[in-house]
Amino acid sequence: MSLDTPNAFADEENILLHTALFKQVSPTEAEELLPHLRRAVYDKGDYIFSEGDTDHRMYLLEQGRVKLIRTSSDDRVQLLSIHAPGEVLGEIPVFDPHGGPRTASAVAMSHGTRVVWLEHDALFAWLDEHPRVAIDMLQVMANRQRANNERISDLVFMDVPARLAKTLLNLGSRFGEPVEQGLKVPHDLTQEELAQLVGSSRETVNKALMDFSNRGWIARDGRSIIIFQPGMLIRRSRR
Question: CB-based contacts of 137: which residues, under 8 Å, 6+ apart?
Fold first, then answer.
């Protein structure tokens, strides 16, 4: 990890203006937070924060990708989610500072992953000056809760191929790169991590991937997947 100087943020580089949490904030309002932002750069595999930490920081992902994981008492690891630039990480301790330690770890998935962070006290002092912004933040938090509820519902009501199809479509919409054959999705996940993201075993997910491939919907290319027929994946995700 390396730290940059706190105030080395040009106006056009203000990460706050590119995050959903601050999407309704004016540039002038956002500039008031610049002196309180801290930036850090991480290499692949570095921990940005760890399960059990007691800090009250909120992180904003500026560059790269980050995965959230939890570790069980017997050292099994569960992949919870993947986050892209412009997304917020670890906001719960900021909005619930007395709720206990962090319940997940954030790990950089690529070299040069860059984040900025903001302490609870600085954010809430700013919100006292701009209380309207808190309403916008509540809307973003509600959207996250809705997404979490949908994920829980998917685990209960959808079979593995449907969940896999939906996961591939989600990864494609967020990280996909158009290529001549279709949409290339560089997920950078091991087979075990992809299975964890779907919420199933590696063997079951591999079987579903093979089925999708045999049908001509997708092709596997290392730690990438090329989607040939997104419409078929959409149809399968709704069964």
Answer: 21
- Name, in order, each residue with C-beta under 8 angstroms of 191's C-beta and a sequence gap of 6 or more: 202, 205, 206
Report how far residue 127's alpha carbon sits from residue 122's, in angstroms, rounded to the nearest whole number: 9
What DSSP string runs through 164-184?
HHHHHHHHHHHH-EE-SSSEE
Q: Which fold has domain 15-155?
A: Jelly Rolls (2.60.120)
pLDDT at 193: 92
What would the CATH number be for the domain defined by 159-237?
1.10.10.10
Q: What is the pTM of this model?
A: 0.84
Q: Where are the domains of the chain?
A: 15-155, 159-237
- Predicted pLDDT at 173: 94
Confidence band for 65, pLDDT divided at 50, 70 and 90:
very high
108 alpha carbon, distance to own chain's centre:
11
Kindly provide the residue ranges of all beta strands, DSSP E only, lying in the chain, ordered along the sequence. Answer: 2-3, 38-42, 47-49, 57-63, 66-71, 77-83, 88-89, 105-108, 113-119, 177-178, 183-186, 218-221, 224-227
CA 182 distance to own-chain centroid: 24
Cβ neighbour number for residue 155 with a 10 Å cutoff: 12
Q: How far is CA 168 from CA 76, 96, 142, 143, in A?
A: 24, 32, 24, 21
